[in-house]
Amino acid sequence: MARMHARCRGKSGSVRPHRTEAPVWSTTDSTEIEKLIVELKKNEKSTSEIGLILRDRYSVPDVKLATGKRINAVLKENGLASEIPEDLRNLIVKALRMRKHMGENKKDLLNKRQLQLTESKVRRLVKYYVGSKKLPAGWVYKPDTAEILLSR
Question: How much is the pTM?
């Protein structure tokens, strides 16, 4: 599959093996896993970091196979889910860093182009999340108010 803003194809990544149930060697106590997820979120870890920590430290290869729910579903049940999806938040943070750099380096044309591409990805993701009702209907990305939005 080709890249979004480049003509190159790139290398494909690895794929997890298809499983319908958790492996025998894995930790499968669902209540313990859910407690770990809540505890890690309270320590300000993102959902992807939580998944990596559970995989590496607690031998949980797949949270959904072990608990029957995804990490976001567990966080939503406990009232800890974030308002903005993680991938959108990461792109907004990246755009803010680029805007700060542009403020200091006005003639950096490469950064200017990358900022345009990043903000177009943000707008595309916002359109998707508004359509899938993960964001409210009138939600719009504005670079001026993005920093205030992330501080909540």
Answer: 0.84
Architecture of the domain spanning 86-151:
Orthogonal Bundle (1.10)
- pLDDT tens-digit readout, 107-116: 999 999 999 9
Neighbours of 110 (CB within 10 A): 7
Q: Does the structure show a pLDDT above 90 at 23?
A: no
The 10s digit of each residue's pLDDT in 75-121 is: 999 999 988 999 999 999 999 999 999 999 999 999 999 999 999 99
What is the domain partition of the chain in residue ranges?
A: 30-77, 86-151
Q: What are phi and psi of 31, to 5 degrees?
A: -65, -40
Complete DSSP assignment for 49-94: HHHHHHHHHS--S-HHHHHSS-HHHHHHHTT---SS-HHHHHHHHH
Assess contact for 142 and 98: CB atoms under 8 A: no
- What are the two backbone dihedrals, phi and then psi, of residue 65, each rounded to the nearest 5 degrees? -70, -35
Alpha helices for 105-152 (secondary structure H)? 109-131, 146-151
